[in-house]
């Protein structure tokens, strides 16, 4: 068990976080000043799927552009968890930053899901995320990515997974947060979970999610009692049932390294991708975006 950080480290970290969140993100809006990327040749069959709130559209644009530079053959689909007007704005705006993109309301995906998953999705934002993936994987292989995931280098494991129709996922270094209600339900049904799963980035072949299994897992569950990490449990069960293999942790990073300012950050020259989870979200803006901006504007 790690020792608590000294008071000076915690206080100083809070001050740095305040600065990083309020001043560094000025670069964030500059994604909309870039010309659309060249060299993309998307084709049906492989799709980068994202789910975002309207306030995260700009972050999603950075994430999508970084991923599609490494995976130019993938299509892009963004499900926006917002109003019709917000979806229309995103539909007009997103292609200016990332190239061809399909944008739809998340509710359109929820509406075509099986009854229990649809009911869960209408009560739980992360349930809507799973509903989006479930709906889209019916017609295409899906690479799902949260809007706080950035790619810094080639992703050959994803190209291989697509070619070989194999599921792959990222893992947390510190362990997975699970909803106790659904974790108990999975255990009662004898359904194991993919160990240390992080649901922010994974690849699944077309038609591979067992939708009947999701309905069984949700049967009889008080959906109002399911918390933020209910979707993580369901996804972990589904990926374990697929035999999903974890991506190498040293290159596909999910950690809280440099949560405190006296800690060393990861070496971005040596990784392919990082999911900037909540404790290190300021680094998305402080380290991730400047690095990508410099790479994209290099002569």
Which ranges are low-confidence, i.e. pLDDT below 50, for 5 or more consecutive residues?
Answer: none
- In the CATH hierarchy, the architecture is Alpha-Beta Complex
Order of helices and strands: HEHEHEHHHEEHEHEHHEEEH
Distance between the termini: 47 Å
Number of E-state strands: 10
CATH homologous superfamily annotation? Spore Coat Polysaccharide Biosynthesis Protein SpsA, Chain A
- Class of secondary structure makeup: alpha/beta
Could you explain how this protein is built, in words?
The protein is of the alpha/beta class. It contains eleven helices and ten strands. α3 links the parallel β2 (75-80) and β3. The mean pLDDT is 92. The longest helix is centred in the N-terminal third of the chain and has 16 residues, at 7-22. The protein has helices spanning 7-22, 57-70, 84-98, 106-110, 115-123, 125-136, 156-164, 180-188, 211-218, 230-242, 281-296; strands at 46-52, 75-80, 102-105, 141-145, 149-151, 168-171, 197-204, 245-246, 252-253, 273-275.
